[in-house]
Fold these 4 entries.
Entry 1:
Amino acid sequence: MRERVSYGNAIVNKGKKYITKGIYKLIIKDVEEVTKTAKGADTDYLKFTFDIADGEFKGYYANDYENQTNEKKWWKGTFSAFVPVDDGTERDKKTANRFKTLINAFEESNNGYHWDWNEKGLINKTIYGTFRNREYEPGKWTVECSMFVSAKEVEAKRVWSGWLEDKPLNGSSATSGNSASTSDFVNVASDTLAELPFN
């Protein structure tokens, strides 16, 4: 049998362990302010790059990146948050509320941190993320970060279950409506925060 040169550089596939939906402690690796123009209007958002900070999946996204064999690699641990544009619309007010809630989660999760409109100041900060299953093609699913939540919310077991619901392609969800009742919050195990919140 002829020796194959490529064999020497090949990677042994030991079976990748994929992250599952649940709640994980994250560390922010980078933050970038992005402006996109659509239909003549600018939309601003912060693009967060993160990794899992502890537990079974610690360093998950770094390991994934290092083991990618494609010529063009990409970091898969990302989350985007819209930033208000101050145009006075009701939609922008809602965006401002969501953005402030997100920033408050960082402030509550990192002692002494206070938001000063320097997005790079969020690098190396910790935050918790809710992860859900999302269908990206018919019958094909991935796990994505759906929201950042504070350490206080997790410790108090006050995490909205809607952020953990599966998201099929048609946009339907097991959870509907904008209001949340007490039963819409999931119990988070105090001994491990990386387990499935409901199973």
Entry 2:
Amino acid sequence: MNAIKCLLISISLAIILAACNLPSSSGLPTQTADQNLVATFVAMTLQAKPTPTKVALITPVNTVQVATVQPITTPIPPNTPVWLAYNYTCKLATGGGNMTMNLSWVDRSTSEEGYKVYRDGEVIATLTPNSTYYVDVAFVATGKTLSYTVQAFTADWQASTSPLAYGCE
């Protein structure tokens, strides 16, 4: 029994010396940790002869947490309205005329929240969805014009017609 204890101590000492890259008297190969991360050692039982076994050290690398993300809905922009017809009349007045502009457009959108009518870049009316007609009466100074656009809108998007510009002569 003392011989087995001595043999186990000798083998343990050889393993320690091999890990430190120091010479050993048992004849086991030595190596440094940066040469190979696999250590060689001898497994021993009372009934069996020594058997060389290789062991690898495994270290987890770059763990990632996974989260469930809900899809983001993208709002659909309204389609641009298209002029259908427009006409105007003027009643001459001192310094210009009172112009009545009849605007109509094609509602090409199913997602608009409404329409805005602009005169010279200023909102003059906000209309309900699916609107297709608006009448404006405004004074136009001699030699000046008024410009109109119609805009379909949602909370996130706008789409406008090309501008129309007319005046009373």
Entry 3:
Amino acid sequence: MSKRGPTAYFLFADDVRANITADIRERDGKVNVAAIGKAIGVLWKELTEEQRQKYKDIAAKKSKEIKERLAVEQAEGGDTQEDDQHDGAAPSTSAPTGPPFGFPTSLVKRIMCIDPDVNRVSAEAIRATSKATELFLQLLATKCGKVAASQKRRTLRFNDVEAASKKDRRLIDMGLNDLLVNDNIFDEVRARIEEENQHRLANTYIKKKGQVDDQNNKGMKSLTSFFPTAQKDELIADKADEDSDNDDED
């Protein structure tokens, strides 16, 4: 189970999704996932800070409850096999082989049960959801990797995820970009990235300006260097001024 629990944006989305879905179905005759996600994002932006605070308080409360429940479950030593038995699945007689698709089934089940409308989840549904999650992460990682590679990087960053969520139709339809844009848990990282970009642009400008100045000054000579006689007269005048200053001191 996520230790954070549902965010304020997710809670708001749960509240308004049914009405938005009904409105879109009545207007268009069919339901489009991308349209629902976009409509939810628009409504969220229209909320006042006081209205958003209501959902933030609920999210904080749920997060606290989840942490407390996790602590109790860990203390009691509950495991996946016990969960499957409660769902009516036959207990396994073979040695444990680890998560079926790389994700602990107990974790997947607990995340699914965050939804208050879900009471129980069968073992088959958990495995199917685990596999779907694995495929989703593979898709997202591949898309993010291409964005990073286009910028000659091997490290994936938040802005790679954001860029990928705008380009792939499947990610757009599932509302990933709307989540990244509207959920305030990403505000801090987005502000930090913007600050880093501004700093990088400033350094690039300074570096390029220095290169241009060096190139402009390269090979330049003083004006008197093109006139040997004038240059000689200037040196003589400087010497005379220096001797005159020394005589005044004496």
Entry 4:
Amino acid sequence: MTTTTKPTRVENPSKPPKPVKEPKPTATQKGLVKVGAIPRADLLPPEIRAAYRGKAVVRMLIILVITVAVVVAGGVGYASIRSITSQAVLQLERDRSADLQARQLDFAEARQIANQVDEAIEARKIATAAEIDWKAYLDEVSGTLPEGVSLRTLAIAPIDQEAGASGGEPANPLQQESVAAITITAFSATVPDVESWFDDLEGITGFAGIAPPATVTEEGEGDAAGYTVSLELLVNEEAYLLRFQDEEGE
């Protein structure tokens, strides 16, 4: 097979290069309007463009109203739940109170008995508030008698404190406050030591004084002669037993 080799073209270096052609001007550059181009003029009326903007504002207002409605609905729902919960708690407490009242009826009789016991205790305190153990008290008085002196008579009389306070002056302004008086008559074959006896009487419980006058009179003749001592012993509140008054503090 025979291969044909084309001869290599050798440019003449002395020949100048061809000039570069400039691009032809376009129709726009020539001042001509190209038919079919995108129009640039705004032909929409202002009312239509304002309507478009108004629609955007309306959409924002609708979104805002929906948001507010959701928040309000949430608040109302929360308040309703709280109200229902409170009503349930209130009803529970009412049921509990009714149950307690029903249970209290079971103990009504016991409470009535307890009240009667309290009333009896209070009545006993009032009834024994001015109680004096006269046997023990007179034994204490007898223990102060001087040697050779014996008791003949004893008379106990209560003193009404309210009578003096409500109606007029007391019978003896010098008489000390007292709740009872013991009229004592004693006999002695010899002259009794009255001053020593009075000193011993001051040491007994509830001693309020000796009401004047205290007298010593001579009586009888011969072997029957002797001396009679008469006095009125005053007793104050310290002689009260108060047996049941201390139960309140126990």
